[in-house]
């Protein structure tokens, strides 16, 4: 045991010179290339925010006024709230672009320098000097493009739903004016009480988190567990020990900030329960909830010394609501298993990288798109609609990704899988999926749909009917022309198939709103549209030189695919290089 400790300590000190050399090199590259990245991000993002802000103001007001989802009172409150948000967005957005540019311009070269000595890299010295130079400049341009996608595509897609969608029961949502004064009073009390008490609790537990964190990190260093698992990670984890106080300060500030939504939630309780006393009871109970939560996180004694009253008429919701912690870490503390060594942090990251799912989705879209063109399902009109950037309704933009996702769900249901079986044979389950809220928002509904499909036990004909329905649901006329209703379909099963199609298309639309997905999807649409146009004889091109250019590009893409590469689709995407290459065949 003593020998192992000394070996770990020696490994730590042995890598310190390399660590500081890489850190110095990263700082130098950050000083050389950081200002350019900062200028690109600051000027690009600020110009987008300022240029589009008047249009955002006008369109936001218009959509709120014209929507049928809300009644007059809610519309008035929304207009007041939106005014504040739009003004704050203008200030925070521009200031955020300045600080984000500074952070990215300095950190990107430094992180790329450290990543250059990772596993599987050749010519380490060359990569140490080159990585993080030009990639920092292109990365800053990618950030600006993502912001542009958010301000144009994502914003208008969301506002279109607000403007065009009607409430399910046909009646607009409205609020009860009688309980508004009580809700405002409860929210004011909650903000004051929670801000004071959360600050005192966080201040009391500040040293506990500081010293317990140091203790755990040092234990991991001695036992070569956690961030100290691999020798190459020892210097970085050593830096984590030095920077741990800053993490504790960040947690302290986050505790103070979170008091605002906790306190404001009292207004929701008053309105939902139609009782001011229950709202005030929640204000007192929220302190106990926060105290108990922090005890669990810091592995302190369970429970809380603060009172916790009933703040819901339904007793169960007072203790199992979204703001309270459903289970305690303390429950599993006594049966904690011995830490297990894993092969590599980097291999685990690559295996569970959510971008891999996006890459496989795009590859499958390309593969199935060619088949659908051969069948005549995808037409030149679809290509023209895609090129015209009709993102919200196109067969290629929404129908084809939903079609590919349905294929994966059917494949998973046939394999009786607990997760999602991808086209390359790998499987994403609840145990190995990325621990990201954004990913869970898409993954969990897909698992529900998969279980429902498995329970329906569709025949092959019904599965084919469902696939085409998902693909063409955005065009009701083509649904009638291309789909012949199967005699085996009952009215109930027909309604279920239509519900599956609508839900899958809704999920695909939501996925397209996130900037990273939009950028990747643009690359796919460009490659797929050119390939489809070439397959149809180049009829979409107005001049012969462009046709020859498109065909030469397709030849290169097909030659790359024959070698098992995916750079034809992902070559323009810097983030896609983080994932492993996948064979498209």
Automatic annotation (TrEMBL):
What residues form the membrane-spanning segments?
12-32, 38-64, 76-107, 183-206, 227-246
Q: Where is this region: Disordered?
A: 558-585
Q: Which UniProt keywords apply?
A: Membrane, Transmembrane, Transmembrane helix
Tell me the superkingdom of the source: Eukaryota
Indicate yes or no for the key word Metal-binding.
Answer: no
Task: List the PANTHER family.
Answer: MEMBRANE PROTEIN (PTHR31133), TRANSMEMBRANE PROTEIN (PTHR31133:SF3)
Q: Provide the protein name.
A: Steroid nuclear receptor ligand-binding
Taxonomic lineage: Eukaryota, Viridiplantae, Streptophyta, Embryophyta, Tracheophyta
């Amino acid at each position: 045991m003593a020998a192992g400790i000394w070996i770990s300590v020696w490994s730590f000190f042995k890598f310190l010179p390399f660590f500081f050399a890489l850190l110095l090199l990263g700082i130098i590259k950050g000083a050389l290339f950081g200002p350019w990245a900062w200028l690109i991000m600051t000027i690009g993002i600020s110009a987008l925010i300022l240029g589009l802000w008047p249009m955002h103001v006008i369109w936001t007001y218009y959509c709120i006024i014209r929507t049928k989802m809300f009644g007059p009172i809610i519309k008035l409150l929304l207009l007041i709230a939106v005014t504040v948000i739009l003004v704050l967005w203008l200030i925070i957005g521009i200031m955020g672009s300045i600080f984000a540019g500074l952070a990215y311009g300095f950190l990107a070269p430094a992180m790329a320098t450290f990543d250059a000595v990772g596993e599987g890299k050749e010519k380490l010295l060359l990569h140490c000097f080159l990585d993080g130079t030009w990639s920092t400049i292109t990365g800053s341009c990618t950030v600006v493009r993502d912001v542009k996608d958010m301000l144009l595509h994502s914003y208008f897609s969301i506002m279109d739903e607000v403007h065009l969608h009607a409430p399910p029961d046909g009646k607009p949502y409205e609020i009860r004016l009688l309980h508004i004064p009580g809700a405002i009073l409860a929210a004011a009390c909650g903000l004051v009480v929670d801000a004071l008490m959360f600050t005192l609790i966080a201040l009391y537990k500040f040293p506990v988190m500081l010293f317990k964190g140091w203790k755990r990190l040092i234990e991991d260093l001695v036992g070569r567990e956690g961030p100290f698992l691999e020798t190459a990670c020892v210097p970085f984890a050593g830096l984590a020990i030095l920077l741990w106080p800053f993490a504790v300060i960040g947690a302290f500030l986050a505790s103070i900030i979170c008091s605002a939504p906790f306190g404001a939630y009292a207004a929701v309780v008053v309105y939902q329960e139609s009782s001011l006393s229950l709202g005030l009871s929640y204000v007192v109970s929220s302190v106990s909830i926060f105290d108990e939560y922090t005890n669990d996180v810091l592995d302190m004694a369970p429970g809380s010394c603060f009172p916790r009253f009933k703040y819901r008429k339904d007793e169960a919701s007072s203790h199992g609501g979204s703001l309270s912690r459903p289970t305690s870490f303390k429950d599993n503390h006594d049966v904690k298993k011995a830490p297990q060594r894993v092969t590599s942090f980097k291999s685990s990251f690559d295996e569970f990288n959510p971008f891999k799912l996006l890459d496989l989705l795009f590859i499958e879209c390309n593969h199935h798109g060619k088949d659908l063109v051969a069948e005549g399902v995808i037409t030149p009109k679809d290509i023209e609609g895609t090129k015209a950037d009709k993102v919200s309704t196109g067969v290629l933009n929404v129908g084809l990704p939903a079609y590919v996702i349905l294929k994966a769900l059917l494949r998973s249901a046939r394999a009786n899988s607990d997760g999602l079986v991808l086209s390359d044979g790998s499987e994403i389950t609840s145990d190995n999926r990325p621990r990201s809220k954004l990913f869970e928002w898409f993954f969990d509904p897909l698992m529900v749909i998969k279980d429902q499909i498995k329970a329906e036990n569709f025949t092959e004909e019904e599965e084919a009917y469902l696939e085409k329905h998902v693909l063409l649901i955005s065009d009701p006329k083509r649904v009638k022309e291309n789909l012949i209703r199967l005699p085996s379909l009952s009215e109930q099963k027909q309604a279920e198939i239509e519900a599956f199609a609508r839900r899958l298309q809704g999920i695909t639309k939501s996925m397209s709103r996130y900037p990273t997905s939009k950028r990747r999807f643009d690359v796919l649409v460009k490659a797929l549209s050119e390939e489809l146009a070439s397959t149809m004889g180049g009829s979409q091109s107005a001049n012969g030189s462009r046709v020859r250019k498109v065909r030469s590009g397709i030849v290169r893409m097909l030659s790359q695919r024959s070698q098992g590469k995916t750079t034809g689709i992902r070559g323009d995407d810097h983030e896609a290089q983080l994932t492993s290459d996948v064979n498209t065949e």
